[in-house]
Design a protein that fits this description.
Length: 347
């Protein structure tokens, strides 16, 4: 039989038609199903649909194509042993792809849930990877069971090999468990602004199985091993709340009317908190006189920022506006002046 006769024979054309038919049917049904589910879940205002849609995209078409290929083997004149191999291969492929979809959906829904649940684990790469690996390993074990591959020796070998790998990868495992400890203890989560005892500070971007990434204000990235971060003294400016007290030190001359100074300062402080982005408008600013210095009376103004980095904008606007108002009110802000006398040379 030449190539043309083979391509037109029933042994080839019928299986090919089944595969193409399954592919076309899956392509159409996938789009119809996703559109219908999208309309249904949009009415219920469920954000998890985007995760499900991304996970199912292309998979329904693939499943129907595999189904068509499976149906074609039922019609083709194949040896029973060969047909069994095909059937097991198709079943293994279905289970593997379903495990992949389930892993994607669970990881996505986990990220969605913990991003909303107060007090839950933060959404990080490490948690999603653990879910994906667990589901995929379960799927692989099911495939091995279906293929009549003994699982007990494999698990035993993995146990012995795992002990050997634990000794060989102590640093890696230390970083992994340190990352899990950091997340479980709720010391920080992505989006928090932290300052380390090394002087590094910035926003936590992600906690992976090995490192924690921090983005500094100049938009640079600091990568810290989890094991080192777990033993580092850090200040989390987003815990327990993001709001941050901003202290501004001011001084006025001894001949100033302190009651009038306090009224003007509080007026400017309220104006800044109300008009400047990042200020807590409902907060009542405070003025506390604290000491008599050599040249002026020192006091501290307490403002309130929505988060740590907003303090720079608040200080900038407050000092600028306060200086302008003090000038209009003729309130003196004395400064220490150093006078140097130079003796003329005798030579």
């Amino acid at each position: 039989m030449d190539m043309f006769d083979f391509l037109t024979s029933r042994q080839f054309t019928l299986p090919a038609l089944f595969m193409l038919g399954g592919l076309a049917l899956g392509f159409v049904l996938e789009r119809v199903l996703l559109v219908a589910l999208g309309r249904l879940w949009s009415r219920k205002d469920w954000d998890g649909f985007q995760t499900v849609r991304k996970s199912l995209r292309g998979m329904i078409t693939l499943w129907f194509a595999i189904g068509g290929a499976y149906a074609s083997t039922r019609l083709a004149a194949l040896n029973p042993a060969v047909r069994l191999i095909y059937h097991e291969a198709f079943l293994a492929l279905i289970i593997f792809t379903m495990s992949l979809v389930i892993a994607r959906i669970l990881a996505g829904l986990l990220d969605l849930y913990i991003s909303r649940a107060e007090g839950a684990f933060p959404s990080t790469t490490i948690l999603g990877n653990i879910v994906r690996i667990t589901v995929m390993l379960t799927g692989i074990l099911v495939i091995l069971k279906i293929l009549d591959v003994p699982i007990t020796p494999i698990l035993t070998a993995l146990g012995v090999g795992g002990f050997a790998m634990a000794l060989a990868f102590q640093d890696t495992l230390s970083n992994l468990f340190s990352g899990l400890h950091i997340l479980a203890s709720k010391q920080l989560r992505p989006g928090d602004y932290v300052e380390l005892d090394t002087g590094n500070e910035g926003y936590v971007v992600d906690v992976t199985w090995r490192n924690t990434t921090i983005r500094t204000l100049p938009n640079n990235v600091v990568v810290i091993p989890n094991s080192k971060l777990a033993t580092t003294v850090l200040t989390n400016y987003h815990r327990p709340v993001k709001e941050f007290s901003v202290l501004v030190d001011v001084g006025v001359g001894y001949d100033s009317d302190l009651q009038r100074v306090e009224e003007i300062t509080l007026e400017i402080a309220r104006e800044v908190l109300r008009e400047v982005h990042g200020g807590v408008s409902g907060f009542e600013p405070q003025v506390y006189y604290k000491e008599f210095s050599d040249i002026r009376i020192e006091f501290t103004v307490v403002l309130r920022a929505e988060e740590y980095v907003d303090q720079y904008r608040l200080k900038h606007e407050f000092i600028k506006r306060l200086h302008e108002r003090y000038g209009l009110e003729e309130i003196d802000i004395p400064s220490l002046v150093t006078t140097m006398y130079l003796e003329p040379s005798r030579h």
